[in-house]
Design brief:
flat, 35% helix, 17 helices, Ribosomal Protein L25, Chain P, 21% strand, 571 residues, seven-stranded mixed sheet
Length: 571
C-alpha cells in the first residue's frame, strides 16, 4: 500500500469511525467499520490484510475524543454525515405513530380519564405517557377528566384526585384543564332530557335478569314504546331520588336487533343509594353510566382523538348512537392492547394493591415491592424514564409486555451522568490492613475527573463483602487505594502498580474503613439490606441519588442521626 492510498484509507476510516461512534453512543470498533469501508471503496479490498492495522490507530484517536469534539470533527470532514445522524435521531425520537386525520382539526385535543379510586399503578401511567407525548408532538391540548360517577362499585378515594395530578406531574406533564365528572351531573341531566326529546331514551323498570333475557332474544322491552312525556316524568322522579337502586334505569333506544347484544338499548342512567364521598356530589342518587357521561364530555370539550383499551371497543359503538341522535361527529379513536409488567408479584390492580396493604403484605403504595408510580418515585426512578418505556410500546392493539429493564435503562441514561459514586459494603468481613496510605481517593465520577476525588479513610482495618475477600496468598485492588495480598488473614499492601489489574487480572473491589463508616439500610424489592458506607455519604441529603459501586443506584430517603435509609433504584 503506497502512502497516498494509506492517507485515503485513514481519511475514510476517520469518517466511518466518527459516524459509527456517534450513531451508537459507544467506541468505534475496527470490525464494525471494516465492512462499510470496504463496501464503499472496492479498491481497498486487495489490501484487506493491511487495512485493520491502518484503521486501528484511527479508531483509538476517535475514541479518545469527547462526543462534542467527535461531532465537530465529523462536521469538518463530512457535513452530510452529520445531517444524516440528525435525521436518524429525529426519526428515532418519534416512537409513536402519527394520529389519524390530524390535518382535519385546528388543534389536537385529547383527554385523560382516570378513575380516582386510588393511587396509580404502573399500568395507569401508559395513558398520560402516550397522550402527554402526543400533546407535545402536535402542540395540542390535554384534559384531565376524573370519571368519578360511580360512587359504589368504583368508589372514589378523596386523596386520589390530588395524588393523580401529582403522578401526572411526576411523569412530566401538565393538563390544560382538570374537571371532575361528579361536578357536571346537571350537564348530563340536561343532555338526557335532550335525548328524550329526540326519541332516543326511555325509562325501564325491568330487572337486570328480565332485560338480559329480552336482550339475548332480541325482543323489545315492554317499556320501549314509552312516549317522551312519560319518559320525562319518570326521569324527573329518578333525578328527585324517588327510586331506589335497581328500581329504574334510563335506557338509550338503539336497534334491538343489533348483531352485538351489548349494543341493544344500553343503560345511560341508574339509581345508586350509596352517597358520593365528595360533599359537593353527595346528594345525587341518579348517576350517569360511564359511556353516557364520557360521550357527552368528549363532545363538549371538543376532544378530537381518543385512545382507549381494546376491551372498550363497544364503548365507541354505544356512544355512536348518542352522537347520531345529537348530530355530532365522533372523535378519532385508537385502541390499544393490554400491557403486562414483569418483575412484580403484585398484580396491576388498584383493588389488589389495596388488599395487600390492608393485610400488611405491603407497607404502603410506595413500598419497593409495589408496582406503583409512588414506589418508583420513592426509589429514585425519573418519570421521564417511565414515559420513554411506555411510548416505546406504541399503540398497537396487540398485548405488550413492559420490561422493567426498559424503564431502568431509560432511567440510567437520565441519572448516570449526574450521580456521584460511593462505596457500600454489605455483610462486611473485617480484615486488618498493614501498610499503604491512610486514605483512598477514588473519583467522584469515573467519567468526570473535573468533579474531583473522594477521601475514603483507611486506618488499620477494612470491611469487604465476603465474595471479595481474597484467598490466602491472592491479591485484590482496593479501588482508589491500592493492591493488597492476603497473608494469614491480614491484607498487606504490596506497593504494585495498576498494571497488575490490567495484565494479571487482579480484581478491583470496593471497601470501607472498618470503624469510620456510616450505617445504611437499603430498602429493595427483595427486602431490607444492611451495610456500611464510606463516611462521605453522610454529607448528602434526602432525595439525593448515589451509585453504590458494584451495587447500584439508590435514593437517599431518610437520615436519623448517623444512620441512613436508602431506596434501591436499580443496578
Amino acid at each position: 500500500m503506497d502512502e497516498d492510498l494509506r492517507e485515503r484509507v485513514e481519511r475514510e476510516a476517520e469518517t466511518a469511525a466518527l459516524f459509527n461512534a456517534l450513531k451508537h453512543g459507544s467506541d468505534a470498533q475496527v470490525g464494525a467499520i471494516m465492512g462499510p469501508l470496504m463496501g464503499e471503496n472496492p479498491e481497498f479490498r486487495e489490501h484487506g490484510d493491511e487495512i485493520p492495522g491502518v484503521i486501528a490507530p484511527v479508531c483509538e484517536r476517535v475514541n479518545d475524543l469527547a462526543d462534542e469534539a467527535k461531532r465537530d470533527r465529523l462536521a469538518e470532514v463530512d457535513p452530510d454525515a452529520v445531517a444524516e445522524l440528525e435525521a436518524e435521531a429525529e426519526a428515532e425520537e418519534q416512537l409513536l405513530p402519527d394520529l389519524p386525520d390530524v390535518a382535519d382539526h385546528e388543534e389536537v385535543r385529547m383527554r385523560l380519564a382516570p378513575n380516582p379510586n386510588g393511587p396509580w399503578h404502573l399500568g395507569n401511567a401508559r395513558m398520560p405517557a402516550v397522550i402527554g407525548t402526543y400533546k407535545s408532538m402536535y402542540d395540542g391540548w390535554m384534559l384531565c377528566r376524573f370519571d368519578d360517577t360511580d360512587p359504589e362499585t368504583k368508589r372514589p378515594d378523596l386523596d386520589a384526585y390530588d395524588g393523580i395530578i401529582d403522578a401526572i406531574d411526576y411523569l412530566g406533564f401538565e393538563p390544560d384543564e382538570v374537571v371532575r365528572a361528579s361536578d357536571r351531573v346537571e350537564t348530563y341531566y340536561e343532555h338526557a332530557r335532550d335525548l328524550i326529546d329526540a326519541g332516543g331514551a326511555y325509562a325501564c323498570t325491568c330487572s337486570q335478569e328480565q332485560f338480559s333475557e329480552l336482550k339475548a332474544d332480541a325482543e323489545p322491552c315492554p317499556h320501549r314504546g314509552q312516549d317522551a312525556d312519560e319518559t320525562h316524568a319518570e326521569f324527573d322522579r329518578m333525578v328527585a331520588g324517588e327510586y331506589e337502586s335497581g328500581e329504574m334505569v334510563l335506557r338509550v333506544r338503539t336497534d334491538i336487533e343489533q348483531k352485538n347484544p351489548a349494543l341493544r338499548d344500553w343503560v345511560a342512567f341508574r339509581m345508586v343509594d350509596t352517597p358520593h364521598p365528595r360533599e359537593a356530589a353527595a346528594e345525587y342518587r341518579c348517576w350517569p353510566m360511564l359511556d353516557f357521561q364520557s360521550a357527552i364530555d368528549d363532545h363538549l370539550f371538543d376532544i378530537t382523538h381518543i385512545i382507549r383499551g381494546i376491551d372498550l371497543q363497544d364503548s365507541a359503538k354505544r356512544q355512536g348512537f348518542l352522537y347520531d341522535y345529537f348530530g355530532w361527529e365522533y372523535p378519532e379513536v385508537t385502541h390499544w392492547g393490554r400491557i403486562e409488567v414483569d418483575e412484580y408479584d403484585v398484580p396491576l390492580s388498584t383493588s389488589s394493591i389495596k388488599e395487600r396493604i390492608a393485610e400488611g403484605e405491603l407497607d404502603g403504595w410506595d413500598d419497593p415491592r409495589a408496582p406503583t408510580l409512588a414506589s418508583l418515585e420513592r426509589r429514585g426512578v425519573r418519570g421521564g424514564a417511565v414515559v420513554a418505556a411506555m411510548t416505546e410500546l406504541g399503540v398497537s392493539t396487540s398485548s405488550a409486555d413492559l420490561s422493567m429493564s426498559a424503564i431502568y435503562s431509560a432511567n440510567r441514561e437520565r441519572v448516570d451522568e449526574g450521580t456521584d459514586r460511593a462505596f457500600l459494603v454489605r455483610d462486611g468481613e473485617r480484615l486488618p490492613v498493614d501498610g499503604g496510605p491512610d486514605a483512598g481517593h477514588p473519583p467522584v465520577h469515573p467519567e468526570h475527573e473535573d468533579r474531583g476525588r473522594r477521601d475514603v479513610p483507611l486506618d488499620d482495618a477494612v470491611l469487604l463483602e465476603p465474595g471479595d475477600v481474597p484467598a490466602e496468598g491472592d491479591r485484590v485492588w482496593l479501588k482508589g487505594w491500592g493492591p493488597v495480598r492476603n497473608e494469614d488473614g491480614r491484607l498487606v499492601h504490596t506497593d504494585e502498580g495498576i498494571e497488575v489489574v490490567r495484565e494479571e487480572g487482579v480484581d478491583v473491589v470496593h471497601w470501607v474503613d472498618a470503624d469510620e463508616n456510616v450505617p445504611v439500610t437499603m430498602r429493595t424489592m427483595d427486602g431490607d439490606v444492611s451495610g456500611r458506607a464510606e463516611p462521605g455519604v453522610g454529607d448528602y441529603g434526602v432525595d439525593d441519588l448515589l451509585q453504590f459501586e458494584r451495587v447500584g443506584f439508590v435514593r437517599l430517603d431518610d437520615v436519623v442521626g448517623d444512620e441512613l435509609t436508602t431506596y434501591f433504584t436499580h443496578a
